[in-house]
Amino acid sequence: MQPKTRNFGLIVPFVVLCMTGCFSLARNPPPDRHYVLGGGLPPDTAATDIAGLTIGLRRVLLASYLATPLIVVRRGTHRITFSEFHRWGENLDGGIARAVAAYLAARAPVQRADVPPWPVRERYDYVIQIHVSRFEGAAPEESTATEGEVHVLATWEIMRQQDGAMVAGGTTDFRQRGWRVDDYGGLLTLLDRGLNVLANDVVTCLGNLGPASRLEPGAGEPPVPARAPALHCVTRPQ
Cα–Cα distance between 77 and 79 in angstroms, integer? Predict the structure, then answer.
């Protein structure tokens, strides 16, 4: 019986060594990558007949599936995927507001654009509410597809701060092909471009409104009706 006992003693260390080796060969998960918005293209600074506007951006409203730290890619029409290792470095609603405010402020007609929380008792020429329903990469359903596009779809309203009445509104529907699926750096560049287009659409609409003083009652005049017809700024898909 003694030889068998010695053989068992040799086998146990061998099994432990094999298990250790197997675990050491396992692939480590890729590191998380975090992204922020706001590094987009230089804005269009075309001259308009308005200047020095102050803008207050309300908290951006997101479609519920976008309210996640994971970057979204749509496959086909209905399937949504979430990138586990590619994440937003901040809350997406705050990141969109910050980027749009920067793009608005960089345009000649706008003197300042603030994101919430606003300074106490601050008064603005206009307040803007943005609703984002698409903010994602889009790719064919097939898992082997390598070419996709970027889709940014948002509606927005321009309001008077004094009574909350909407004076104008519009839609930005930005699509751009050329996104290489799984290139998240390229995806962020194109999403930023969509926000730049949105800011340009808003400024163009503000130009159609003219100075904020035109929409406010003068001394001795009755208040502007809160439900006066709003200007609809038509924007075409980009």
Answer: 6
The CATH number for 101's domain is: 3.40.50.10610
Q: pLDDT tens across 122-153, in order? A: 999 999 999 999 999 999 998 888 999 999 99
- Cβ atoms of residues 203 and 209 within 8 Å: no
Is residue 215 very low, low, confident or very high in pLDDT (cuts 50, 70, 90)? low
Q: Is 198 a domain residue?
A: yes
Q: Are strands 70-75 and 79-88 parallel, antiparallel or unpaired?
A: antiparallel
Burial class (CB in 10 A: 0-12, 13-18, 19+), 84: exposed
Whether residue 16 is contained in a domain is answered as no
List Cβ neighbours of 112 (8 Å cut-off, separation of 6 or more).
Answer: 54, 55, 105
Kindly report the pTM of this predicted structure: 0.79
Residue 66, domain member (yes or no): yes
Flag whether 202 is in a domain: yes
pLDDT at 46 over 70: no
E strand or H helix at 206, and its extent?
A: helix 184-209
How many domains is the chain partitioned into structurally?
1
Domain that holds residue 91: 49-217+225-233
As a whole number, mean pLDDT of residues 25-44 equals 73
Contact (CB, 8 A) for 71 and 187: yes
